[in-house]
Amino acid sequence: MTNLGDVSGSAGGYLDAASGVPLHPVARDALLAAMADGWADPGRFYAAGRKARVLLDAARAAVAEAIGARPDEVSFTSGGTQALHAAVLGTLGGNPRKDLFVHTAVEHSAVLHAAETYAAAGGRVLSIGVDPFGRVNVDRLIDAARQPAVAAVAVQAANHEVGTTQPVTEIGAELPGVPLIVDATQTLGRADLPAGWSVLAADARSWGGPGGIGLLAVRTGIRWRSPYPADDREGGRVPGVPDVAAIVAAAAALRAVCAERSAQGARLAALVDRIRATVAATVPDVVILGDPVGRLPHLVTFSCLYVDGEALQSALDRRGFAVSSGSSCTSSTLEPSHVLVAMGALTSGNVRVSLHRETSPEEVDRFLAVLPETVAAVRAELGAADL
Predict the structure, then answer these.
(1) Staple partner for 309: which of 42, 53, 71, 325, CB 3.0–4.6 Å?
(2) Which phi-psi region, left, alpha or beta, contains residue 360 (left: φ > 0; alpha: ψ -120 to 50)?
(3) pLDDT band at 334 (very low <50, low <70, confident <90, very high)
(4) Could you tell me the sign of the dihedral formed by the alpha carbons of 126, 109, 196, 299, in that order?
(5) Cβ distance 78 to 242 under 8 Å?
(6) Catalytic-labelled residue, pool 27, 92, 213, 329
(7) Is 258 among the residues known to form the active site?
(8) CA–CA separation, 175 and 121 (whole Å)
């Protein structure tokens, strides 16, 4: 049987960090220790409960420091999706006299699903378009957000599919008094967080914490009402007993990745630059997506003409490389990525490569060596000419 101490091996070939990264070694150690000392309900006043509460409070304080917030502004959810749902629906619910929600067209699907729920209940939703790099039309967004009926605005810090960053700080400065919801799931631990956010959401998997832990931060003074039935846990924002051990591990991982962020960011950015240049030079009929400059350091997406993205993903998997298709298109939904559609980009043949702290230059070189022949093979299988 595999135990927690056996899962620290190499993640060679894993190039899908945007979906989640291997557990950080610091998080693993913290998780094991907290499982021994923090197993009790932190809401209880007996000794074991108090011990769990001390661990939870310390973890909350560490996360708050990392994002520039107060500990009482931080709550923990079951993951990034719940954090985003709560961020959107809680902010909109806290402003019931207004009925318009404005967001960029490239927000995470969790934001869009929350917007659908809001619209189904009678609210209005306005999506603001982006340019071919995935950058939002700032002037149009600000003009729309200044309408008196606006209850909240959502602008992601950086896009999860193509890595393009958004000018959140600039937008926030132009919208005083308007609640600004920021999805930081790909940014926290990777790059500087933007200023000016009112409500922030993130996912511990993206920075090397355990799965099942999300982050919801609500600034003091922001009108926010929980979309869930009443519960006194997590400041009344998220119901249920928090997973203390996992939260402690998530906080430990976040502190560690923030300390090593500068060095890791420079290292991964250089590898991504290598991927961008080599793919463009060695794979015929390919388009590199996203902003070439204003982007996250660890992520790159490209589109290969005459190739099915899922077929290419499977072919690379057989060669030992785990990547994302860079699209929400699957055999079950047959729906193209809304991000790529909004950008006017090719919605098939997409590959998203995202790197993490264990990704080595040799691993990237092996990937770049097999990619051209893999693309050619998939094109041949599909009967497409490899021009």
Answers:
(1) 325
(2) beta
(3) low
(4) negative
(5) no
(6) 329
(7) no
(8) 26
| Strand arrangement of the beta sheet that strand 286-289 belongs to | 286-289, 299-304, 350-354
Q: Which residues of 47-69 are buried (b: 16+ CB within 10 A; e: fewer)?
A: eeeebbbebbeebbebbbbbbeb
DSSP 139-192: HHHHHHHTSTTEEEEE--SB-TTT-BB--HHHHHHH-TTS-EEEE-TTTTTTSP
HSE, CB side, 13 Å, CA atoms: give it for residue 142. 13
Q: Residue 281 is encoded by which pair of tokens? A: 């030079």
Tokens of 61: 């304080």
Q: Does the global pTM surpass 0.90?
A: yes
Edge-to-edge strands of the sheet including 100-104?
74-77, 214-218, 199-203, 180-183, 150-154, 100-104, 124-128
Residue partners of 66: CB distance under 8 A and separation at least 6: 188, 254, 255, 258
Q: Is-contact 325 313, C-beta < 8 A?
A: yes
Widest Cα–Cα separation across the chain: 71
pLDDT tens profile 117-157: 999 999 999 999 999 999 999 999 999 999 999 999 999 99
Distances (CA, A) of 84 to 1, 209, 336, 362: 36, 18, 22, 36
